[in-house]
Specification:
33% of the residues lie in helices and 30% in strands. By secondary structure, it is an alpha/beta fold. The mean pLDDT is 96. The structure holds phosphoribosyl ATP (PRT) and magnesium ion (MG).
């Protein structure tokens, strides 16, 4: 039996996994199996990485901050959108500069272009999975947001008259356009962040710092390659 400490890293399955893997590869931190196809939720990584045995958790993007906050994972990769919404007690030592998008308030093209804010009696119906961000945004304008919590495809809600606006992330803008919506306001720029459990930062300082350093180099390398393209 190996008595090496285990370093657990939570990865978001879904759209940012594909951009995460080249960074892990550069850092020699690769999962032993293809995490894009395996049905396993826990996958082994290198047996000896900075004195630790590494393992990966492959979980829903919105759950990564929970695993890291609770200490079930030492490190994780999460979109800034989710960190701003859930405000987990974690450190955020590195911007990985992947999964770039922006968190926006969007509405029906005709209403936005006509300057109609769609506020009725100081209230507005907002479809989103970012409940707190949406409520805060409208509260600051003296408007009460009746939040309709959805898990995806927010763009449909105004189309069927269920909501006046949506608060969601936008990347190319193609989904908005295809559904007759436009951006009304940009709230935050988003990219994926490396996050760390505060206790792991102390108890596994050497390994956690090594991951930060190696991934920082991987990000720098990726930016350099992109510039030269
Ligand atoms: O999809 P699932 O329900 O499993 O989980 P999830 O939506 O939480 O995860 P996933 O993998 O879809 O997104 C994970 C993270 O990727 C998000 O938290 C963001 O930080 C980041 N990201 C980057 C995006 C996008 N770009 C993006 N374009 N997340 C979602 N989208 C969606 C958006 O919701 C909208 O429906 O893509 C659509 C808009 O794309 P465009 O290109 O048409 O503008
Ligand atoms: Mg999604």
């Amino acid at each position: 039996m190996s008595d090496k400490p285990i370093l657990t890293i939570a990865l978001s399955k879904g759209r940012i996994l594909e951009q995460t893997l080249p960074l892990l590869e550069f850092a020699n931190l690769m999962p032993k199996e293809n995490v894009q196809t395996t049905r396993k939720l826990m996958v082994d990584g290198p047996e000896d990485w900075a004195g630790s045995k590494v393992r990966f958790l492959i979980i829903r993007a919105a759950d990564v901050c929970t695993y890291v906050e609770k200490g079930a994972a030492d490190l994780g990769i999460s979109g800034r959108d989710l960190l701003l919404e859930y405000k987990p007690h974690v450190y955020e030592p590195l911007d990985l500069k992947i999964g770039k998008c922006r968190l926006c308030v969007c509405g029906p093209k005709d209403a936005v272009e006509a300057g109609d804010a769609l506020i009725t009696g100081g209230r507005i119906r907002v479809a989103t999975k970012y409940d707190t961000i949406a409520e805060d945004y409208y509260r600051k304008q003296g408007v009460h947001a009746d939040v309709i919590h959805l898990y995806g495809s927010m763009e449909l809600a105004p189309l069927v008259g269920m909501a006046d606006k949506i608060v969601d992330v936008v990347e190319t803008g193609n989904t908005l356009k295809a559904n007759g919506l436009v951006e009304e306001a940009t709230l935050f720029d988003v990219s994926s962040r490396l996050i760390a459990n505060p206790a792991s930062f102390v108890t596994k300082k050497k390994q956690v710092q090594a991951v930060i350093d190696q991934l920082r180099e991987a990000v720098k390398n990726r930016e350099k390659v992109k510039e030269s393209e």
